[in-house]
Amino acid sequence: MKRIVFFLTFTFLFFSVNAQKFMTRNGYIGFYSHTAMEDIKGDNNQVASVLDISTGEIVFQVLIKSFHFEKALMEEHFNENYMESEKFPKSTFKGKITNLSAVDFSKNGKYDVVVEGDLNIHDVTNKVTAKGSLEVITGGINANSKFNIVPEDYKITIPGVVRDNIAKNLEVTVAMKYTPVENK
Amino acid sequence: MKLIKTDMRRNFSILVLIISIGLNPGIVFGQDDLLDILNEKATPEINYTTAAFKSTRVMNGHSVEKMPPGQLDVRISHRFGKINSGFYEYFGLDQSNVHFGLEYGIFNWLMIGVGRGTYEKTYDGFAKFTVFRQSTGARVMPVSVSWLSSMAVNSLKWTDTTRTNYFSSRLSYVHQLIVARKISPSFSVQLAPTFIHRNLVPTELDPNDLYAVGAGVRMKLSKRISLNAEYYYMINPKDIMSQKIYNPLSIGFDIETGGHVFQLIFTNSVAMIEKGFIGETTGSWLKGDIHFGFNISRVFTLKK
Questions:
Q1: Whether residues B34 and B106 fall in one domain
Q2: Owning domain of residue B208
Q3: What stretch of H or E contains B14?
Q4: CATH of the domain at B205
């Protein structure tokens, strides 16, 4: 009996050390719109994300109201007029690293990856592919990516009067610092 | 005794086993969907409701909203003459009452403003405070509450120079509690119990203290246009005053274009400060004493 208990305990402890899932709750996602009229930048430092290194699955969850802007009015317009954040409070991404074999999670280093998946913004889902990098470090994984999205693809309409102030193509920056999923 | 000890030891090792199972993420997170992990572990946050009204004014009167810190609101408001004044006065457009305002957000919970209006050549100043903010999530608050205190100085020449005139006779004060709820993204309401004190009144028939309750609604017609209405009910009996006073009713639209908010207004009052439109409105909607007007609000970011 004792031996069995010891064996099982050891097995479970061993598995829990080898974390398969990495998570963050304060990742960064920002977007940048540049036009001759105005530069608009929205920053969100409360992005939640999970990365499963055994399957390459990666998910992001973004609260729209957590995007902050340099001008309070931009933030109000972003929430009220464009994202309708009371109706659609969250944006999500569910995807997969397509070249998982290129990453050696047992060795520290930076690896280029391609992520493919479904991006849901403003209740509209589109397939997206983005290039990025995974950096395996001691005690965690850093992920970075830059890609472009077009607001019109997500039924975010920009009226004529401000069309010159908002870019057709927004640059999105993703920066995550993952740590192994903590045992609770 | 020995038997009990062995039992305890066994129990202890089973306890260690259970804990180590519990510690194992592979077992805790048996879900197929990684998003479930995020939602399961999420700590609830306070989700504040924002923008119940587009502007710091419903129409004539204050809304529950404040300027965010570091934002300067430059306001120019106009009320034309009465629409029923006929073609000669071009339906009121020949006359004009203006109010200029400079308003600024200091903290999240405090905004201040100063203004100057044509009506009785009045200078005014106010402070508006947050008491509660409507929220859901970790803290549920059904309404937003603001407190407004303002003071106005009438700068007209004294009508009677034979008597001793005190500066304090020019002053009037307004205190208002504004309770608002954004019921849906497109529909907001507010109630505003109001107290007005006027240091000097025209005759003995006119009370120094006025009590009123204001009601305001905002209904969005599109993302950038809303229909607003505002009514103040004066509690003091109005029939015995030296002048026939009416309750002010204003109906109009908010039109938002980027950094500007235009408010187009039809109202039976000329004044654009509480002391004037609540206690001194002499026009009646039923008689056609309707003034067309507008407020223009332009916001500048002074501090980022």
A1: no
A2: 46-301
A3: helix B2-23
A4: 2.40.160.40
Taking only the tens place, the pLDDT of each residue in B80-122 is 999 998 888 888 888 899 999 999 999 999 999 999 999 999 9
Q: Are residues B72 and B87 in the same domain?
A: yes
Round to whole Å and give the CA distance between A66 and A114.
Answer: 27
Q: Which two tokens stand for residue B278?
A: 């609540």
From chain B, pick out residues whose CB is under 8 angstroms from the CB of A17: none
Q: Are residues B93 and B135 in the same domain?
A: yes
Closest CB from A21, A59, A86 relative to B25:
A21
Q: What distance in Å separates the CA atoms of residue B144 and residue A112, rounded to the nearest whole number?
A: 49
Cβ–Cβ < 8 Å for B38, A29 = no
Cβ separation B23–A8 shorter than 8 A: no
Q: B14 in contact with A at a CB cutoff of 8 Å?
A: yes
Question: Does the model's ipTM exceed the 0.90 cut?
Answer: no
> CA torsion B122→B260→B63→B183, rounded to 10°?
170
Beta strand B71-82 with B225-234 is unpaired
Mutate which: B14, B34, B224, vs A, most A CBs within 10 A: B34
Residue A158 at interface with chain B, using a CB cutoff of 8 Å: no
A177 touches chain B (CB under 8 A): no
B7 and B133 fall within a common domain: no
Give the span between the Cα atoms of B297 and B66, in whole angstroms: 13
**Entry pTM:** 0.83
- Do B145 and B242 lie in a common domain? yes
Enumerate the domain spans of chain A. 20-180
Is pLDDT above 60 for A177? yes
- A117-175: pLDDT as tens digits: 999 999 999 999 999 999 999 999 999 999 999 999 999 988 887 888 888 899 999 99
Pick from A9, A35, A120 the residue to mutate for testing the B interface (most B CBs within 10 Å).
A9
In terms of domains, do B12 and B96 share one? Answer: no
CATH of domain A20-180: 2.40.128.110
The residue ranges of DSSP E strands in chain B, in sequence order, are 46-48, 71-82, 96-107, 110-117, 122-132, 135-137, 144-154, 171-184, 187-198, 209-220, 225-234, 249-257, 260-267, 291-301
Are residues B178 and B136 part of one domain? yes
Q: Is the Cβ of B136 closer than 8 Å to some Cβ of chain A?
A: no
B10 and B82 belong to one structural domain: no
Domain count of the fold of chain B: 2
Q: What is the pLDDT of residues B212-232, one digit of tens each?
A: 999 999 999 998 999 999 999
Sign of the torsion formed by the C-alpha atoms of A108, A112, A117 and A122: positive
Residue A131's Cβ-count burial label (10 Å; 0-12, 13-18, 19+) is exposed
> B89 with B81: CB under 8 angstroms?
yes
Residue in B closest to A181 by C-alpha: B25
